[in-house]
Predict the 3D structure of the following.
Amino acid sequence: MDRLTKKEEEIMNLLWEHGDMQVREMQALYPEPKPHVNTIATFVKILEEKGFVAHKAINQRCYIYFAKVTRDGYKTKSLNGLVEKWFDKSYLGVVSTLVQEEKISIEELQEMINEIKGRK
């Protein structure tokens, strides 16, 4: 799965948060200064080519766009790609780095372990 650029991610977040919509509806959700409709349409086309978005025709010139990939699905694929690329496919390496960088404490790690054990 391709990675999303910042602008592509903005559009995907709109679709994930608000559901299916037309390009003009997407534009209305942007703060001022709003991007031009053609700019949004270009990014939506790129997202379609990447397989993140699809459309259904309302009439010959009007389309509604929808996300083909869920936010959780993208999050999972992105995390897997990150672990594969930077941690040699080692999730233990990720956790170790988080502990070393003090992003997660040993106590929090133990709580997670206990929670997981409680599910079994």
The CA atoms of residues 58 and 103 lie 48 Å apart. The chain has six helices and two strands. The radius of gyration is 19 Å. The beta strands are 53-59, 62-67.
